[in-house]
Amino acid sequence: MSSQSRPSEQEEHVSQFFQIHAENPQPRLIKQAVEIIRKGGVVVYPTDSSYAMGCQIGDKNAVERVRRLRQLDKTHNFTLICCDLSQMGLFAKIDTGIFRLLKAHIPGPYTFILNGTREVPRLLLHEKRRTIGLRVPQNPILLALLEELGEPLMSVSLILPGDEEPMTDPYEIRERLEKQVDLIIDGGYGDLKASTIIDLSGDEPEVIRVGCGDPTPFMVEA
Prior knowledge:
Layout: H1 9-12, E1 16-19, H2 27-38, E2 43-45, E3 52-56, H3 60-70, E4 79-81, H4 85-91, H5 96-105, E5 110-115, E6 131-135, H6 140-149, E7 153-157, H7 170-177, E8 183-186, E9 196-199, E10 206-209
Parallel strand pairs: 1-8, 2-8, 4-6, 5-9
Antiparallel strand pairs: 2-3, 3-7, 4-7, 5-6, 9-10
Helix pairs in contact: 2-6
């Protein structure tokens, strides 16, 4: 069949839409969501800040789809959403001082930029600095997904090209993205702010973006 007569994937494809209880996620829907992720799906899900978009960490095609949807260049710090601090330690170099900082602020609406370990796929690392963003969220739906998946989820905030703030309404997200992602999880309205980003890869903490998390504990006086 010629390419002219074959419909494009985008024309054929309509995403699934799961309404998952914000406090008591339905195990059946969580399992179905993880199956979609494992099959290379790009998924939109709630966090403890704004909605986010992500996929399985080692899936190159899915990561590239996310990169195209967000129009991200190779210097963007992707984020690995982890279930706890010990899982973060597999993917980032964490010394005693950083460990204490992280333990005091996770789970919570923070993304920490850290130097990545060899466990991080190269396509997710910042091209020049070899860093990766990591976070542990306080959101029952996302934590249930992570537990069922058994590994971190590659994630970026759901701030679409041309927008200054993340999308918050699951039905609006559905209208804009239902032919471009594989699953949208409706966990209620999201926050207008993304996570606060703290760079811990250098000698001193540096606040990169102020979002939902209080940046005050990380501000270093000049």
